[in-house]
Amino acid sequence: PSMAKTIRKKAKILLLTPEEASGQEVELSALRRNSDVYIEELWLTDDQREKLEAIYAFSGHPELCNRQFSVRKPKEQVEVAALLASEGLDPDGRASIGNRWTSRWWMDSEKKGIVTRRELYQCDCGYDHTVRESRTRRVAVAFTGCLAHAEILSEVATGRILMVRGLFTHNDGCKSAFLTRIPHLRLHPEVFSVALKQLSVGAQLADIQATNLALFESRGYAAQPADLSKSPYRWLLQKTDTTSLYRQFNRIRGVRTKIAPQDNIHAWLDPHSPSYKEDIASAVFHYAARTERGERFEVCLATKEMRAAAWKYGHGSQIILDGTFGVCDRRVLLFIAMAVDEQGSGVPLAFFLFSAASGAQNTSASYNTDLLERLLLRWKHSLASSSPEPGAVFAPKVAITDTDLKERGALVKGFPHIWLLLCKFHLRQSWRNHRTRVLKGTSTLHSEVRLRLRKLEETLVDSQEYSEAMAVIQNERAVIAAEVQPKDSELASSAVVHLDYLTNYWMQEALWKSWSGYGRRVAGERLGSEVVMILTTTNHLESFNGVLKRKHLRRWQRGNRRLRIDVLLHLLITSIIPSIFAARALEEREHTRLMGMLKTVPGGAQLVEQCERSRTARRSDKSSPLTAAPYAFLAPDLSRDTQAAELLSAHQISVPTYVEHLRAFEFECFSSLATPTDAHPLQYTIVVGLDGSAACSCPDFRYHGGACKHLRAAILRLGTLRRQGLGFPDISLPATLEDARA
């Protein structure tokens, strides 16, 4: 061990003044008078450090200065002011263009309402830039090995000096040193203050620089003198100020960027650490440090608002789980659990951050089912403390994920009774990618086969019976063999490869249940909601991930550089998540205010009641059980309208027959997949009543209601016949679900 460390292990004999010994209050205690000067904070070469350790090893060394001054005695304050001025350490000297002192360390402390600051300065001639692994020396004077340094203890509010310590003897090289390069002028504190205020509200660096330029040109800074030649400060921000600006900003928020990010996080979460942050620790429900190569860094969080939202919107309801990466400057993945509120907006419930496995080549896939299961269980158990009912166990009934089976496995293990759905977008994307890969060609026949396969996939997604779905694929094989094989055997083989892909993987019955219409129907039954209220994609979470990266995180990035993991954690808990929930609360208040205003105008009360019913329906609709007949209403749907027009032009829908006892027209419509070679083509029955009621036997209408493509084709067929002068009445369907129920 070094001599300095050895010395600090020795017990010190503290000499108390008579006043302190008698219990009287003193300005400077014996403990503070005899505290160590932190020479390890100075930027020294090994040779300089050895020399200073030798000097401090012997108390009373003639070159050392250690003087105390009373803040109550003006004479002593004048004396210390003269001492500091003679060394260039007074405020004016440190601000001058010839200043040779640089602050290396400082610390504030408070006692009985008085804040004091210890600040350590080093002579610029004693700084060797190679110690900091810098290639370029920017200090105005050359390095001479000078050992001079000074520690000043002062009152922050008044600037009065309590103690001056250090070594003021400069070596000969320092005494004769001249400026060898243009000195760096200090930026005026007010410029920093304005810039820090802008950073605190998320301003970008370009905005800060523009504001600085505008204030400088207009003399908008309060302390900016009319004659700048007399100012020892700079007033324009430079590129070299950016690092200091962001470092000060992070220090104000309690993030020490000079130490490793993981050390910061550990200190914030350690109750015995002086850097412990209760607001951050209370939001973190799981933390695991990475102490060995094979371990992962893990930190999971849910603020008080997120826990409440989990019970309100996630418990007994549906949640979304998905992951992303690229949120910080390390190989860390972020998984988010989300629910949907009454407005249909996504609400984040929990954030799961963990590092990629050691040696993993692909960060985005560097996780497994066991890891996700463990983190989900930690979240589940942590929610018990915020349960609205004693003994309640957090248990969402339905969850939707992308096509990642690891997420699905973790959800099933963490919540054994959950019903899983697959995101329709990711499902169709997988199918489209495979179809594109195996069907390569630009002929008309290629286009027809692609269209048939797309329509087949649409039918599978809406399928309600497993046997029927398998039969549809089998029927398509027969069509390919009968119609495509004779014309292009290679194309037929490629189409069969795609059908095999669907059959062998996606049509496994357990997996089929999660992406088919059957799965959505079961989810609706479990939630007591209409099928149309069930989430079919993870778009809410995908959108949130984009907003998080491109809006919330980018506000705090420096030059679009990814944030440190400790800065990310700090921002999520103290800024980003609170701002999201604050915005939600404000939007709710604004909605309440608007509804209150509407009630005061004619017809407003009914409109408000209708809106509130609609909001409630988005969460659940217990009054309309799934066993009841679905309602027919003609809501705008470009996709179904296009498909209806195709059915009509292909003559797939029959001329209507009027049924007297039903007072309705009845149609027969072949499936869009039916072909002339089908021995038993699939067909549906459509009924359109004179009173505007309607129904169709297809799965789309049976389980979704509204207006399927067959119903829309029937309406188009009636319109065509009426325009031909055949005397068919003009029948229109209700435009909304509320109108259909009325």
UniProtKB/TrEMBL annotation:
InterPro entries: Znf_SWIM. Residues 684-719 form the SWIM-type domain. The keyword Zinc-finger applies. Keywords: Metal-binding, Zinc, Zinc-finger. Coiled coil: none annotated. It holds the Pfam family SWIM. One of its GO terms (molecular function) is zinc ion binding. It comes from the Eukaryota. The keyword Zinc applies. This is SWIM-type domain-containing protein.
